[in-house]
C-alpha cells in the first residue's frame, strides 16, 4: 500500500492530462474527473481512476488538484452542492493550479477555511511541453505549512517551486508571468517578420539571437512555431487573452502602469477577434504579418 496521499484531479485538458499522468508515474493514486470521456479514458489508460462526478472524485482524497481554464470554471467546480467544498473531507488540501484572478483565489481560500479545507493557489508556467516533461515553474500562494505539505507532490510536476506569499500571491505572480511572456512573444514575432522581409536566413538568425541577451525560454520553445507557422495550441490565444485581462485589471487596482502590456493586450484581443483564438499564442506572428501587408 502506498503511503503517498490520495489525489483527486479535476480538469484533464492540455495541461491537466500530462500533469496527472506524471503524478501516477511518481506513485500517486489519482482519481480524476473532467467533462470529456476521451480524457477520462486517457487517465485510466495511464493507471488512474475515472470518477463520474466531482463529488465522487474528491470524497476520499487527501489532496485535490484543480486545473481548469478560468475563474468561472474554478467557481463552478468549487461551490454548490455538487462542488468540491461540499464533498471534500475536512482537512483535505485543495491545490488550484488554474490561472485565475488573485481575488478569486482569496475568496476560495476563505470559503474553504469555513469547511476545514486548506487551499493553495499554485498556477504554473511552462506550457504543454513543460507539463509533459514535468519541468513547470510553479508559483504558490498560501500558508507555509500547507506549502510544505504539498511540495513533494508539486516536485513531481515541476522544477521551480516557490511560495510567493499569502493566498492570491501565486496568481499575482502568474499574471506578471503572462505579461512577460506575451510581450516577449510579440517582440519575437516582430523580429521574425523584420528578419524575413530583410532576406536573412531566419533559422540561423534565431539561433544566434537565442545565444545572446535576446535569448529566452519563449524563443527556445516557440522557434519551431515561428519557422514552420505551426500554431497547434500549446497555450491558446483565448487563454492568454483572459490572462492579459487579469494582469491589466490587477495592475490598475494597485496603480501600476503597463504601457507596453496594454498594447500587447490589445494585439492579443485583435487576433482573437480575427478568429485565431484557438491557436497557440505564438500566432501573434500572424497579427504582425497582417500589419505588415501579408494576406493570410
TrEMBL record:
Alphabetical list of Pfam families matching this protein: NAD_binding_11, NAD_binding_2
Keywords carried by this UniProt record: NAD, Oxidoreductase
PANTHER family: 3-HYDROXYISOBUTYRATE DEHYDROGENASE-LIKE 1, MITOCHONDRIAL-RELATED
All copies of domain 6-phosphogluconate dehydrogenase NADP-binding, residue ranges: 6-165
Spans through the membrane: none
Signal peptide range: none
NCBIfam families (UniProt xref): tartro_sem_red
Family: Belongs to the HIBADH-related family.
InterPro entries: 6-PGluconate_DH-like_C_sf, 6PGD_dom2, 6PGDH_NADP-bd, HIBADH-like_NADP-bd, HIBADH-related, NAD(P)-bd_dom_sf, Tartro_sem_red
Molecular function per GO: 2-hydroxy-3-oxopropionate reductase activity; NAD binding; NADP binding
Species per Swiss-Prot/TrEMBL record: Streptomyces alboflavus
Source species, domain of life: Bacteria
Domain 3-hydroxyisobutyrate dehydrogenase-like NAD-binding: residue ranges: 168-286
Name listed for the protein in its UniProt record: Tartronate semialdehyde reductase
UniProt xrefs under Gene3D superfamilies: N-(1-d-carboxylethyl)-l-norvaline Dehydrogenase, domain 2, NAD(P)-binding Rossmann-like Domain
Catalytic site: 174
Example of a GO biological process term: glyoxylate metabolic process
Amino acid at each position: 500500500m502506498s503511503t503517498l496521499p490520495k489525489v483527486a484531479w479535476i480538469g484533464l485538458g492540455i495541461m491537466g492530462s500530462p500533469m496527472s499522468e506524471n503524478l501516477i508515474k511518481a506513485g500517486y493514486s489519482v482519481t480524476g474527473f473532467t467533462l470529456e470521456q476521451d480524457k477520462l479514458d486517457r487517465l485510466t489508460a495511464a493507471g488512474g481512476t475515472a470518477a463520474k462526478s466531482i463529488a465522487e472524485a474528491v470524497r476520499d482524497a487527501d489532496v485535490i488538484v484543480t486545473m481548469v481554464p478560468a475563474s468561472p470554471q474554478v467557481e463552478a467546480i468549487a461551490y454548490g452542492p455538487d462542488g468540491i467544498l461540499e464533498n471534500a473531507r475536512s482537512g483535505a488540501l485543495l491545490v488550484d493550479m488554474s490561472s485565475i484572478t488573485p481575488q478569486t483565489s482569496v475568496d476560495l481560500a476563505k470559503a474553504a477555511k469555513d469547511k476545514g479545507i486548506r487551499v493553495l493557489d499554485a498556477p504554473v508556467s511552462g506550457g504543454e511541453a513543460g507539463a509533459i516533461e514535468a519541468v513547470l515553474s510553479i508559483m504558490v500562494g498560501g500558508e507555509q505549512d500547507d506549502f510544505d505539505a504539498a511540495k513533494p507532490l508539486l516536485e513531481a510536476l515541476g522544477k521551480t517551486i516557490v511560495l510567493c506569499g499569502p493566498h492570491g500571491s501565486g496568481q499575482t505572480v502568474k499574471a506578471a508571468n503572462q505579461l512577460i511572456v506575451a510581450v516577449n512573444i510579440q517582440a519575437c514575432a516582430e523580429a521574425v517578420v523584420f528578419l524575413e522581409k530583410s532576406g536573412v536566413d531566419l533559422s540561423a538568425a534565431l539561433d544566434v539571437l537565442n545565444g545572446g541577451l535576446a535569448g529566452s525560454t519563449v524563443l527556445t520553445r516557440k522557434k519551431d512555431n515561428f519557422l514552420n507557422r505551426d500554431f497547434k495550441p500549446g497555450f491558446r490565444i483565448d487563454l492568454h487573452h483572459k490572462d492579459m485581462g487579469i494582469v491589466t485589471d490587477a495592475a490598475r487596482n494597485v496603480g501600476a502602469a503597463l504601457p507596453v502590456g496594454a498594447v500587447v493586450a490589445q494585439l492579443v484581443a485583435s487576433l482573437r477577434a480575427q478568429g485565431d483564438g484557438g491557436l497557440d499564442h505564438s500566432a501573434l506572428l500572424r497579427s504582425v504579418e497582417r500589419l505588415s501587408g501579408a494576406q493570410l
